[in-house]
Design brief:
The structure is a single chain. The chain is an alpha+beta fold and about 220 residues long. It contains six helices and nine strands, in the order H-H-E-E-H-E-H-E-E-E-E-E-E-H-H.
Length: about 220
């Protein structure tokens, strides 16, 4: 996922540009309304009248649906927490969203296969535009000029699927439960818990890649 570049359509105000080039999550989200889902009401940003809001700031927690977890190959220890800040980028339908999603994923140790709680925080910046339609969730489109752009079609926008996907993309490929993890014995015993365990001869032979060669008469 690529960050917002100067190629974003619309003129970004000096204040907004300052926020984008010097992100400060604590400053963005002080005093925000807290939510327990991942929907934002952007109606105020779509009103092009004097005195209309030019930004929306929201934070919340999210327990992704099982289908979304499966689709992203995720197992979580507790809900995700998120922050989102949407600003008008100067055009009638052009906006910028900055945000962060945090959580603890459960990943298997690559040596002993036990679950390892793995904390992660993923931040992002996207240009975003309004295209009226029926969809309630925000989605990513590949724009030739600005590359990845978010689009939304309704004033109340569901960011749940996007936040889950962003979190999953930034997970490490592998983890270790500890640097000196001893892994598993050939018969599947966790050697961190049973360091003195020795597999019997039958198991060692059965687990060896050369076991099939032992009876060949050379």
């Amino acid at each position: 996922m690529k960050p917002l570049t100067s190629g974003c359509s619309g003129s970004v105000s000096r204040t907004v540009r300052g926020n984008l080039t010097r992100p400060d999550v604590n400053r963005y989200f002080d005093g925000m309304v807290s939510r327990r889902d991942a929907t934002l009401n952007l109606t105020s940003l779509l009103r092009h009248s004097p005195g209309a809001d030019v930004e929306v700031r929201v934070e919340g927690s999210l327990a992704p649906e099982e289908a979304s977890l499966v689709a992203n190959g995720l197992r979580l220890q507790g809900p995700l927490t998120w922050t989102l800040h949407v600003v008008n980028a100067g055009g009638d339908d052009d906006f910028v969203v900055t945000g962060e999603v945090r959580g603890t994923a459960l990943l298997e140790c690559r040596r002993c296969l036990v679950d390892v709680p793995t904390p992660l925080a993923s931040s992002f910046v996207y240009p975003m535009r309004y295209r009226a339609g029926d969809a309630t969730a925000v989605w990513i489109v590949d724009d030739d000029e600005a590359e990845d752009v978010l689009e939304f079609a309704q004033p109340v926008v569901d960011f749940a699927a996007l936040l889950t996907q962003i979190f999953a993309i930034d997970l490490p490929v592998t983890v270790l439960c500890r640097e000196d993890c001893k892994g598993l014995s050939i018969d599947g015993v966790n050697l961190n818990e049973h360091p003195d365990h020795v597999a019997d001869e039958g198991e060692r032979t059965k687990g060896s890649p050369f076991a099939s060669l032992k009876d060949i008469d050379l």
